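for the record, two folds in this file. i put them one after another cuz i was lazy. first one right below, seq on top, structure tokens after. the second one comes after a little note so u can tell where it starts
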Amino acid sequence: MGAEVLAPSQAGRDDVVLVWEGVEVLAVRLPQLSESLDHILAAMERRHGMPLSALDRKTKQSVVRLLEARGAFSVRHGVETVAGALGVSRFTVYNYLNRENAAKGE
């Protein structure tokens, strides 16, 4: 997800310091959520072996389902970012999400 490991002395107030038996051993700097989404999209492209925009509609729908499960759409501009990566409109992403949610309700 793009986290960075640091010495505890380099930790900022938003970093996570890990303590082992009372001793600070390392710090982890978590990326901003929007950066994490970029990492997730890049990993998905590697997994599929092609740009996400080149995938067929059914595969794009499964990508949207997976991204929703990972919280991608809770990130500011998440829908726009995913739409751009998939080469579809925001409206299409919302349709994929609505279709999935409707199927869950049945």
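(here's the note) second protein begins now
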Amino acid sequence: MPHGSPIDTDGPRISLFEPEFAEDPHRAYREMRQRYGSLVPVDLAPGVPATLVIGYHTAVRILNDPEHFPADPRMWQRDIPGECPVLPMMEWRPNALRSAGADHTRYRQANTASIAEIDLHAMHGVVEKLAIPLINSFCGDGAADLISQYAFPLTFAVLNELLGCAPDIGQQVATGMAAIFEGVNADKGNAMLTDALLELTQRKRKEPGDDITSRLIAHAAGLDEVEMIHQLVTLYGAGIEPMQNLIINTLLLMLTDQRFAGNILGGSLSTRDALDEVLFTDPPLANYCISYPRQPVLIDNVWLPAHQPVVISMAGCNNDPAINAGEYTDNRSHLAWSVGPHACPARSVAYLIVQDAIDQLLDALPEMRLTVPADRLNWRPGPFHRALVSLPVTFPKSPPLNVY
């Protein structure tokens, strides 16, 4: 007989927002798999139930079936209070991430076309130009927190450059996005973000440039002000936090695993190898790719109810024993970029930015070491991201790098 819905289970639900989950999610995924199989009853926030997919093949089936698993949450969110901390990450927006059918196609084409015009060769110079002053700000100190002093300001500056966003607007964007991801004053953060992106859109309508925002405005899709705001929300949301986390999670692996460590540059594996492994084992956006079935769906002998969130655990699926053989070099079958019609359209750009950011830092400071043991590092609670609170390192004091 089919099992009941994970939404309606009488048993305990797994809380993805608790600090205990953030400290050791991999243990939690193993226990989920033993107890529930591929579909797990979870809470994304207090009173916000969902089904978490941790089976790789089940996830691929869902991600490639937008007819039965559309990304439009409007029926679900009718019963969700406005102050819900995860609502800004899940609510309907007129963008490709939260739309289905013809609307999704229209938004997706505008975004893909605008991103495709990025000059990847020139991006190397952009990352270098922005990374060197940041490294120079702490290389003489002999110590740094690589999140607050490097990964966050660098990804933020790169996104501003790509989107043609001035620093004054960018600061509002950063503050608003942080509140949304943390789920603290998320509704206020959402309002701040909206105001900032409206200002960016209005400036670019008056003075367009060679940037993604201007190309979105000029696209044949004819995006209005509200639609423009929500395309930019997606681009910032998919850029700052995930790229920052990917930089940091990869550096953590390289600083603690002897295959990469030693004196870093003498390690047997490359930055690209480390990136591929982290995208498999500790992806920066661990649980997301949310869909909302139009009607009850029977999958893996479990009924998934209509209009209730189905969340793909990229971390859980990538580490599914059914597909994970522990071989990561040149293996890009992971789900970190998602698959199907909602797969990340900017993965080539993101991959390049992250790899260059790491290489710039390691070239400048090859003798970096963690300040504290890895098991004493703290992970930020939250149902969606895999993110450290800080990554403190020490290194021999070095003179500033030349800025070309």
